[in-house]
């Protein structure tokens, strides 16, 4: 006896599936997964991806789309937990598909019986299919075609090519974002990334609503990413964005906020370039003006390059704090009678969701829909929201905000 554990038939089947999906086209990977499901006793599987506006869950292999707000499938997506339903002589299991912290859709599994080993295999299958979709959508339009309900405008196509996933994070912190109008974006954009223990996040609002607006936001994002990946601090990063805009788009400018959150210590740093001030939520309330600072001019104005560097502001967060970044299209959204959505309603929406322990991505999904409904479905300006959370669990005491 060499002490090794024998490999079961089901393990060999799963290993075969993992090896096979690498060489498959996007839909062929689902067909392989369906055959694997049959061999482990499942009646069938269907993968649903969420559409661009997070209103529908669209089956990749055909069939009706499911409403995120009114179905069991949508409940699994919204809550990020599995849901089990019994009916028609078999069990129906809905598993959320998540790439890290980013919600992608749900996997529907049908089976006459679901014991614990089979449930674990379904969860492993959901994880594998999530990784498969993530890797293959980088070079295939198959998934994009399924998740758009209508064509996007040229400027939107260009800008969306630069955007990162909606959500990313670790056990200590999360950044999540939404933006509308999904199919007619002008110049709003967001970016986020994690480097070791630091969460980087930025939000941009370029002047105008034309193709060059999207190009302006894209150049600003590229300038920020290049600087970040070269190890620049916030002041250097902002200067890099400034230089990129002056060099390549001298007649255009944009506003923006560039931030870092140290996930170990909770230090939050930011540079605000003529943008609406971030909002700080703590213990179920908005801390008025906590992140208000003296205004600075927009990005892209050449005279700034010869002046003093941008000011980097710093504060110490407390565990559980949430920071909201937004463009003016959020708070200035107005209905047919001119009533603004407003910063108070904006902050109160997030506070109520926090009290209900709602996942941050779900809070922003509902919030952007509430702004959409406030304007009766018509966005007069881009509206972008980012929500940053810090929630360490090491119990280390930290200083309070002064």
TrEMBL record:
Domain PPM-type phosphatase span(s) in chain numbering: 170-390
Annotated signal peptide: none
MF terms in GO: phosphatase activity
Domain of life, source organism: Bacteria
Pfam families: SpoIIE (PF07228)
SMART domains assigned to the protein according to its UniProt record, in alphabetical order: PP2C_SIG
Keywords from the named record: Hydrolase
PANTHER family assigned: STAGE II SPORULATION PROTEIN E (PTHR43156:SF2), STAGE II SPORULATION PROTEIN E-RELATED (PTHR43156)
Designated name of the protein: PPM-type phosphatase domain-containing protein
Lineage: Bacteria, Bacillati, Actinomycetota, Actinomycetes, Streptosporangiales
């Amino acid at each position: 006896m060499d002490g090794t554990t024998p490999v079961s038939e089901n393990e060999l089947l799963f290993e075969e599936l993992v090896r096979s999906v690498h060489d498959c086209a996007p839909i062929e990977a689902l067909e392989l997964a369906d055959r694997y499901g049959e061999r482990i006793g499942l009646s069938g599987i269907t993968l649903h991806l969420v559409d661009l506006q997070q209103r529908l869950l669209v089956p990749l292999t055909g069939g009706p789309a499911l409403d995120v707000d009114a179905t069991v499938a949508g409940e699994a997506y919204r809550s990020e937990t599995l849901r089990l339903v019994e009916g028609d002589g078999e069990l129906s299991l809905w598993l959320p598909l998540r790439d890290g912290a980013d919600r992608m859709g749900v996997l529907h599994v049908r089976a006459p019986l679901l014991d614990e080993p089979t449930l674990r295999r379904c969860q492993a299958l959901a994880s594998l299919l999530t990784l498969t979709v993530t890797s293959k959508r980088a070079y295939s339009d198959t998934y994009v075609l399924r998740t758009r309900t209508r064509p996007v405008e040229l400027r939107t196509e260009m800008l969306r090519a630069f955007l990162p996933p909606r959500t990313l994070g670790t056990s200590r912190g999360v950044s999540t974002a939404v933006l509308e109008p999904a199919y007619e974006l002008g110049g709003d954009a967001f970016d986020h990334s994690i480097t070791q223990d630091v969460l980087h996040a930025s939000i941009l609002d370029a002047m105008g609503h034309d193709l060059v607006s999207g190009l302006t936001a894209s150049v600003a994002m590229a300038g920020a990413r290049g600087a970040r990946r070269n190890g620049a601090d916030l002041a250097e990063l902002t200067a890099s964005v400034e230089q990129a805009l002056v060099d390549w788009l001298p007649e255009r400018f944009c506003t923006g906020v560039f931030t870092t959150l140290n996930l170990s210590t909770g230090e939050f740093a930011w540079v605000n370039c003529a943008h609406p001030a971030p909002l700080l939520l703590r213990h179920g309330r908005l801390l008025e003006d906590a992140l208000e600072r003296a205004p600075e001019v927009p990005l892209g104005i050449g005279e700034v390059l010869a002046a003093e560097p941008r000011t980097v502001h710093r504060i110490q967060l407390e565990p559980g704090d949430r920071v909201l970044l937004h463009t003016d299209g959020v708070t200035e959204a107005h209905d047919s009678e001119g009533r603004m959505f407003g910063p108070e309603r904006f902050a109160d929406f997030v506070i109520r969701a926090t009290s209900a322990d709602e996942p941050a991505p779900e809070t922003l999904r509902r919030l952007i829909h509430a702004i959409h409904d406030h304007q009766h479905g018509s966005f007069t300006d881009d509206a972008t929201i980012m929500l940053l959370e810090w929630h360490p669990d090491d119990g280390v005491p930290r200083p309070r905000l002064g």
